[in-house]
Specification:
Number of strands: 0
Radius of gyration: 21 Å
Shape: flat
Largest sheet: none
Structural class: mainly alpha
Strand content: under 5%
Mean pLDDT: 80
Helix content: over 70%
Amino acid sequence: MHGFSVAEQMFGSFSSARDIFLPGALLIFFVFPVWRQIKHHPVVVKALPGVIAATCGLVIAAAYLMFLPVGLNWIEEGKFHYTTLLSADAINYFEILIIANVEVLLY
């Protein structure tokens, strides 16, 4: 990282690590004890399937949006989602194969 001192780089790395791990830690330490008390409440039991379905939909949408730049060769014309599927090299088969193999190995 050109233009930043070692101290600034260290500060950036520590602040980014904190920002990545702090939300999960706060959920574990503060929400989980409350969850143990309310998970048997009838309203929570009835709402839980809908919450799980919405969460799955959001995860699938995020995975789709992250996959878009990898799967297709993009043409920059002022928009991010612009490609032509008529060209011979429109789809990056090698990158898709790598992602599929990693997914299978992680499963």
